[in-house]
Amino acid sequence: MLGTRLKITAYERQHRSALLELAWYSQWAHKHLDWHKTSQWLDNELGHVLLAWHGDQLVGYIGLSRPIAGWSWIRLLGIRDGRMPGLVVRELCEAAEARCVELGISNIVILMITNWLPTYLRERGFSSEEDIITMSQIGNRLPPSPKVPARIRPAEDQDLADIMMIDRLAFKTPWQLAEYDMWQAFRSAASATVATLDDELIAYQFSTRQEEIGHLARLAVHPKHRRKGIASALMHQLLGDFRNRNLTELSVNTQLSNLPSQRLYERYGFYRNGNDIELWRKRLG
Description:
Blueprint: E1 7-10, H1 16-25, E2 28-31, H2 38-44, E3 48-54, E4 57-64, E5 71-79, H3 85-103, E6 107-112, H4 117-123, E7 127-138, E8 151-154, H5 160-170, H6 179-188, E9 191-197, E10 200-210, E11 213-221, H7 230-244, E12 249-255, H8 259-267, E13 271-272, E14 277-283
Parallel strand pairs: 5-6, 11-12
Antiparallel strand pairs: 1-3, 2-5, 3-4, 4-5, 6-14, 7-12, 7-13, 7-14, 8-9, 9-10, 10-11
């Protein structure tokens, strides 16, 4: 029996192997790292990671991202199998929330992608904020190419500053990316293209690939250039490119409330596949 004697400490480099081993073997583990491996995230994120110890044994961990505009994501959360999950989650969350208050973080969010967490996070005051839907497209059906003055070309390293600017304008918290996340997304992309108009970068998309399935990971258009067919032009080029590479399926996630995005994807043959995810949130202070 674990009992109630837990010690919460800050993660240090010397704990790396113990955390990675627990994350690998535990069945009670949440991981939402987008384009990162756990080891990469620990080495480069510089977020806030706390560990729960029972004596000398690591029994749990929680990792929060660096905040953007007062919002932080729970990227990692796990406990040792069979070790009183309610207690470990409670004490990790209490310590993490206290640290967030010190840092001026006002909102903590998490994608509810594991079925064991809702009960414990509800007890901590988290609640469902919105639904994220997943859409799929099979066959790469292409409607007529949109007639737009913008030029579509591959993204380059020197575009990242402009891409970051568009991303901040196009997405609200908590969906904005940190600079390191954007760089990692670009490095991991199987397809990365931008739209330019009169040499001004006005939109971009990053997509990944796993075997014969593609995933549209990020698409954003500068607000002043919306409703001009720019997003459609990026989609058309992406689908044509993936079709030439014999990728037969493409997926994308978007908010249930984002009707313009859903209409765009539906025009290109996307349909909801039922793999919906809830975004949960806790307001601090």
